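Example record

The entry below shows one chain as it appears in the dataset: sequence first, then C-alpha cells.
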Amino acid sequence: MLGRLGPRYCDMDEKTDGVCTFALPRCGEVACSPEIVTLPVRHRRAVRVRHRGAVTTFRLSCRLPVPCDEEHRCTPVPRTCEDGALGPMQEGQCDLDQQANGTCTFGFFCLEVCGRLVESVAVPVGQARIVERPNLPLITVTQYTLRCVRSP
C-alpha cells in the first residue's frame, strides 16, 4: 500500500470489493497520468513505474478492509451465488445475467425509493468480494460477502 517513503495510493476507487485499486504517479516528458494497478485482497506485488526519467519500485499489498466503520458497526450478510442460477429478489440478488459463464453478477437495487438496479458486482467462480452498501433511508451499513460457486 505504500510507495517507498511516499503517500498511500490505495484504494482509489473506494469500493470495498475485495480488490485494491492503486493509482501510482507516472509522468513522461510531456504529460502525467496515473499508473492504475489492481490487486486482489491478500496479495502482494512489486511494480516498477517510470516517473520523470527515474524508475520507482512500489511494493503493493492489499489487505481486508476494516469492517464498516471505526466502531466496527455494520450488519454482515453473506450471499453465495451459483453461476447461471437467478436468486431470489433481494439486495445482492444473483445471478442477474443467468449465464453459466464463469462469473456471478450480484445486483443491488434502489428498493426503498425507485425499485431499479443501481449497481452490479461481478465475482468470478471460486472467488469472493466484500461490498459495503448503505441502508437507505436509515444511517446504517450492510457488509455483503459475495461468493460465486460453479453450477453443478
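Notes for this example: The chain has a mean pLDDT of 76. Residues 112 and 136 are 7 Å apart (CA to CA).
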